[in-house]
Design a protein that fits this description.
Order of helices and strands: HEEHEHEHEHE
CATH architecture: 3-Layer(aba) Sandwich
Strand order of the largest sheet: 1-5-4-3-2-6
CATH topology: Udp-n-acetylmuramoylalanyl-d-glutamate--2,6- Diaminopimelate Ligase, Chain: A, domain 1
Protein name: DRTGG domain-containing protein
Number of strands: 6
Shape: globular
Number of domains: 1
Distance between the termini: 26 Å
């Protein structure tokens, strides 16, 4: 599923970068507010759904190869978080919906969960 389709489903929008590639292909989703879990359980190319709106979410996504972070609950995004996303090469998005609802929508649309295979 393309990022633009994901954003339509969850009524989300891109925060940064302004010229984000909406054609990024998303097939798996990880959801966590604990960046240590993201480091341990994520897969490159997956979408991260989180309520954490600090620069750490963008930095962590960049380290593990996650191209898109979707911040839930309409959190205010600090300029430092936007900067971290841009420096990490991560597309930063936001939605008003909560994490549980977003995960349900994306799962129902056919996106698969990320599992720790190790």
């Amino acid at each position: 599923m393309k990022l633009k389709e994901v954003l339509e489903l969850v009524e989300g929008r891109v925060v940064a970068p302004e010229n984000a590639d909406l054609e990024i292909e998303i097939s798996k989703v990880a959801a966590s507010d604990l960046m240590s879990d993201v480091l341990a359980l994520s897969e490159p190319g997956s979408l991260l759904v989180t309520g954490l709106a600090t620069p750490q979410c963008a930095r962590t996504a960049g380290v593990v190869g996650i191209p898109v972070v979707l911040i839930v609950r309409n959190r205010d995004i600090m300029p430092e978080t936007i900067k971290a996303a841009e420096l990490s090469g991560v597309v930063l998005c936001v939605t008003k919906k909560g994490m549980y609802e977003v995960c349900g929508i994306l799962y129902s649309a056919g996106l698969q969960p990320v599992y720790n295979q190790g």
